[in-house]
Amino acid sequence: MLGLVLAGGSARAGDAVRVGSKLDAESGLLGTMILQVLQANGIPTENRIQLGPTKIVRGALLAGEIDIYPEYTGNGAFFFNMDSDPAWKNAQAGYEMVRRLDRERNNIVWLKPAPANNTWAIAVRKDVAAPNGLASMDDFARWVTAGGKAKIAASAEFVESPAALPSFQKTYGFTLRPEQMLVLAGGDTAATIRAAAEGTSGVNTAMVYGTDGAISALDLVVMGDTKGAQMVYEPAPTIRAAVLEAHPRIGEALAPVFASLDAETLRTLNARISVEGQDVKQVATAYLTSKGFLK
User: Which CATH class is domain 4-117+234-290?
Assistant: First the structure.
């Protein structure tokens, strides 16, 4: 088969598709799913899972050192220095924008994303959320404004960054006083979730990422961001156009897999890895098999 030469390098159908991912558990899970689905479709692969942080993995894709990896739509705001554009706060608009820009400028194709938003969110203990009818940020704002005893565990960045808690407060019209915050060093959501679950210093609310595995495991309820206070970060496979042309089945094979990964599903799968300590490969295989994506 002749190589297909395009901007961003060439690819042959016989070449192994180098599958990468970032270091975190969710990226490793998604990268492993991509790897296993490609292998199941008879496409030769090379495992570059958990290669490094965003800068390293994205750089490797642009340099043609890897061929495909899962990325988040909202990161397009930073890849293209457009973080003030309101499109990033809308799932469809953000996806369309990053898909167009990356194809035009880098010959990178964004395949169909998963309907799961891994952005900053606020989660409340279920035993507090249920009796107070808290399911969305609108509910949370109403509760806080009426004197609800919210106390949030969060990082300094979440509390101070205009894009984080201040954006939630401005969008929904509520204010958390300093005594209603427990600011934890480091900003690890595992620590903020644990503080809420254990009621540390009266904490009942936590800064989380929308698909954190510990959310469901520790009985927290994520408040829905109905007014788009945060940018949307939906995971999607990003692939070099030359490689997709050499292996056109990749898009068709991955589309239903990512379509099946809503936020609750990803939280459950992430929990098996980060909370229960299960092996990433086994979690990926079990899920793909249960859904009929692997035989």
Answer: alpha beta
What confidence tier does 6 reach under pLDDT thresholds 50, 70, 90? very low
Question: Using an 8 Å Cβ cutoff, are 224 and 135 in contact?
Answer: yes
pTM of the model: 0.88
Sole residue written with tokens 């220095």: 81
Distances (CA, A) of 71 to 46, 74, 132, 294: 18, 9, 36, 23
What SS3 state is found at 205? strand
CATH of the domain spanning 120-222, picked from 1.20.120.530, 3.60.150.10, 3.40.710.10, 3.40.190.120: 3.40.190.120
- Residue 94, both tokens: 């953000």
The contacts of residue 168 (CB under 8 Å, 6+ apart) are: 122, 137, 174, 225, 229, 230
What is the average pLDDT across 280-284? 98
194: left (phi over 0), alpha (psi -120 to 50) or beta: alpha
| Whole-number Cα distances in Å, 141 to 60, 76, 133, 144, 185 | 43, 30, 12, 5, 26
Tens digits of residue pLDDT in 216-267: 889 999 999 999 999 999 999 999 999 999 999 999 999 999 999 999 999 9
